[in-house]
Amino acid sequence: MLSLDELLHPITPARFRADYYGRKPLHIPAAEGGRKRDILTWDGWNALLGQPGIWTSQTLRPMRDHIPVRKDLYCDTVQTANGQVHRPSMPRLEIFLASGASLVANEVHHLHPPLTRLAAMLGEAFAAGVGCNVYYSSKGVRAFGTHYDNHEVFAIQTEGEKVWNIYEARADNPVDAMPDNMETRRWLEQTRGNLMQEVRMRPGDVLYIPRGCYHDALATTGPSLHATFGVNPLTGATIMSLLGLMAGKASLFRDWLPSAHTEDGALKDRLHELGDLLAHLAKSPLLAEEIGRLQRRQIERPREFALPQLQAMTLYRTTGRAFPDAGFDQRLAYDWATTAREFAAEEMAVQFDYLSEAEIRLALEAAEQAGAIQRV
After folding, report:
1. Cβ distance 198 to 91 under 8 Å?
2. By CB neighbour count within 10 A (0-12 exposed, 13-18 middle, 19+ buried), where does 254 fall?
3. Among residues 173, 328, 329, 371, which is most buried (max CB within 10 A)?
4. Element of type H or E holding 348
5. What are the DSSP calls for 66-88, one per residue?
6. What is the reported pLDDT for 366?
7. 201-228: b (≥16 Cβ within 10 Å) or e
8. How far, in Å, CA of 69 to CA of 62, rounded?
9. What domains appear along the chain, each with residue ranges and CATH number?
10. DSSP alpha helices (H): ranges in 20-170?
11. How far apart are CA 30 and CA 37, in angstroms?
């Protein structure tokens, strides 16, 4: 699996975070003998397309002139055990590709192990949810017009070449998707500003584009294949819902607000009190712990099976004695163990997958030393 150091080499992760992340684009040409391009070869891509059952109209879309082809033109309606789905017809899809259409595949990190592992690495590195889309284009065809993304972009060229244009304009920390229509496309082209940087991507090259940067791309010399990883950390707005839950437990927030129609300033004073309490809650270690828990839950951690070899299970039984003092997350795990009475350490790790293996191990060791659990 590629590490962050290998993905960014020769730029170090520390320099990347200090000088580029969230600030400006970065093009990293492939090193001689590098293996970044191996995450998706033509053979791997063709093998994925050769499995029509894994695709739907939502995950595989041909594009012509920046516009998605209507699903009724390239999909069959198929009855499955879960109801009807619109499944791409590969013979029809081939006709569209032969006529110059581009192809966009979404959520491919769920389908191709090298992309799965790279998405997981980026998720761990940036405490973020990560998705991967794959883009195929033939010469002179642009799948998308000028646009910007609501997430950080890491693009890896795996086959062929593609020219990326990055413009001066940048949206201010966008979070909402814009409507995909002709009016939006015209507005984006009118507001993109001057060309700031042109990047020719070759196999193994990496391109980082910060959220909100206007860009477009075009295959100019022949067929092109690249994978784009969208890195989507939590935003500061995340604390609003959490503060709402915490504030609801405070008596002052459950009290009636004074009338705004009196002149004694009671409402103004109360709002100041509420603001001070919110500021206090925002600095609470409990809030920081909950944010950390939400960040860890965003990260998809792939499992690799080794059947017929089965996972060894480490079994415990609760004794009825008190569990040791612990942090909030570990206390939740102890409460779960108390309810289960008999459990496997591996099962606890699955139930509380936002805790690291080391945290689970230390929690179990502390509980065993306290006599709260014993091995079975």
Report:
1. no
2. exposed
3. 329
4. helix 345-351
5. TEEPPHHHHEEEEEETTEEEEEE
6. 97
7. bebbbbbbbbbbbbbbbebeeebbbbbb
8. 6
9. 4-233 (2.60.120.650), 236-291 (no CATH), 315-375 (no CATH)
10. 42-49, 71-74, 90-98, 113-126
11. 9
